[in-house]
Every structure is written in C-alpha cells, then in structure tokens.
Amino acid sequence: MLAQIVTTVLGFFLLVAVLRRFFWNAILRALDERRQRIEETFRQLAGAKEDAARLQADYGRRLAAIEEEARGKIQQAILEGKRIAMEIQEDARAQGTAILNKSKEAMALELAKAKVTLRDELAEMTTSAMERILRERLDAERDRRLVEEVLEELERGTPKP
User: Fold this and answer.
1) pLDDT (tens digit, 9 = 90+) per residue, 8-33?
2) Which of 47, 65, 74, 133 has the highest Cβ tally under 10 A?
3) pTM for the model
4) pLDDT, tens only, 74-83
C-alpha cells in the first residue's frame, strides 16, 4: 500500500513536470488571453453602460424641454381662446344693445304714429259730433240725446257721419 501511494505521488509529480514542461505555458497563455478578453468585454460593457446613461439623460432633458414647450403652447392656446371668447361676448353685447336701441326707437316711432292717428281720429269724431250738434240744434233734450248717441258710438267704435 505504501508502494502504491509512493507510485501515485511520483506519477502525479511526473505528470505535473511533463505538463509544466510541454503544456503549462500554453495553458497559462490561454488563461491569460481569456482573462484579457473578459476584461475587455467588461470595459466595453462599462462604456456601453455609460453611453446608455448619457443617452438616457440627454433624452430625458429633451423630453422635459418638449413637455415644457407643449405646456407653454397649451397655455397660449388657452389664453387665446379666452381672449376670443371675450371678444365674442363683447360683440354679442354690442349687437344686443344695438338691437335693443333699434327696438326702442321703433317702438317710440310706432307709439308716436299711434298717437297721431288717435289724435286725428279724435279730432274727426269731435268735428263730426259738433257738426251734428250744430245742424240739429233745436232744443236741450235733443242736444243731450245727440251727445249720448255720439258717446255710445265712441264706445262701440263706429261713428255715424
């Protein structure tokens, strides 16, 4: 058993010596190249991560600027809409006042025409009544009856000639 252990240990050291002599440099070189490739990949990843962070910050700033510009334009549109609404209200008020004034003038004109017509009709009826009274002026009883007839005609709205 001891001989077996000694043989195994000598075989191991012999294997290590052969591997070191023929393969150790190649293995170390392969490991070193792999380590360098991994380091380079990590450097590239770090650079890409920095670029992504820089782009994200830039896009964030651009987006904030666009949003601010949009808010400004919305505020301008709101103010313009309010201004236009005020103009429309003022125009409507002015038109309403003009229509009201025109209506008042038309009513005043119609009232004046009605007064003139009423005055003319009253003058005509009075003249007609006076003519009849003067034509039939015979006695007091007849005068009274004639005046009552004229008043009744006025109430009915149909004067006799």
Assistant:
1) 999 998 888 888 888 878 888 899 99
2) 133
3) 0.43
4) 999 999 999 9
Q: Dig out the tokens for 28 from the structure.
A: 């170390």
Where do the structural domains in the chain lie, given as residue ranges?
36-156
Q: For every residue of the chain, which 3-state class applies, written as one string? A: CHHHHHHHHHHHHHHHHHHHHHCHHHHHHHHHHHHHHHHHHHHHHHHHHHHHHHHHHHHHHHHHHHHHHHHHHHHHHHHHHHHHHHHHHHHHHHHHHHHHHHHHHHHHHHHHHHHHHHHHHHHHHHHHHHHHHHHCCCCHHHHHHHHHHHHHHHHHCCCCC
Q: Under a CB-based contact definition with an 8 Å cutoff, are residues 149 and 136 in contact?
A: no
